[in-house]
Amino acid sequence: MNKSLPIVLWLLVLVTGSLTLLMLSKKTKPIVQDGRVFVDVPWGYLPAVERFQLTNQNNEAFDSASLDGQVYAVSFFFATCPTICRDLNKQIALLNKQMQKDPIRFVNISVDPEVDTPDVLSKYAAEFDATAGRWDFLTGPFYRIKELGQYNFRVIIDKANHTDDILLIDKWGRYRDRFKWNEPVEMKRFMDVSRKLIQETEPPLGEMIHSRNVLADMKGTDWEQTPKLREFALTDSQGNSFFSRDLIGEVWIASFFFSSCSTICPKQNEFVAGLASRINDARLKFVSITTDPITDTTERLRAYAEKYRADPKRWIFLTGNELLIRRISTDYFEESAGEGHHSSKLMVVDRWGRLRGKFDWQKPEEIATLLELVKKLKTEPIPQTIIENH
Description:
The structure is a single chain. The protein is built from 9 helices and 16 strands. The protein is an alpha/beta fold. It has 2 domains: 39-217, Glutaredoxin, CATH 3.40.30.10; 233-378, 3-Layer(aba) Sandwich (Glutaredoxin), CATH 3.40.30.
């Protein structure tokens, strides 16, 4: 018997066993998404951070309006966490020191507000030499903090499972990027990107942004799972997908209608046609959304739009899922709408995708106010956190 044969057989068993274990590990090992993927997206697709109010470590009311026009970083933590949260804040303390001459602010939000009272946060902040106004530690009602995480940053908020990334918001209120606090390369990138944003003098409308905020690349929203819609996707009369985010950078006027309406809708759309002619500005868009999408198919809307000589690049007629349209009406425009009924107001949306006013087209004095608002919004240099009553 060849003496080398047992050795060969042993090696074959070893290799076969190793391959089997490797295959099993590949089958059972979960795929981990660590968020380090970069995307290039239009600036307008970056989520806008809505205004929020909480309480800081000095037991003072904190209003995010105080952050308007400033670059700031947001992170989530809880004071009793002895490991990751504490290490995260040590890193932020280092950033704060390294960037002491840079006009940037840091905002830490507790995910355990019942325990993290202002008194607890005051003592915790003192450990990191954090001064309110530069580095705020915030607490408040848990439901508000949960909404803040879900709506603005699309992160889960609870003690057992919260993001430990540092989230960066630009001067214009856009969630711009996210960074791994425990990676030196990422922290160097944080300082580089932050300083670049500090130098911006105007919103980068139309520019492509290189970011780790991969969620910004998601066109459209899973509206059935979203508590409140802040953007939407429908279909236009040409059969093309329409995304509200595509109008970032432009002022637009929205309205609801349905094509089989024989009373108010024709008069309203005749008025809109006249208004479009009166405001001879191709950048101002008009968006008309049907409340009867079962009847108003793309073909029917196309024929309907032609009756009013609507330029499809300027006056957009939209249809889509009936329940989604109802949610767009209630969530985005704060109006009720359904089959056979809808608001007859004209609704003005600013360049940042925010509802700024609602007007009765049948009242000349309100239309005069609408025209003044449109003129103002077309030149508005920065997003407004504090919105006029509408």
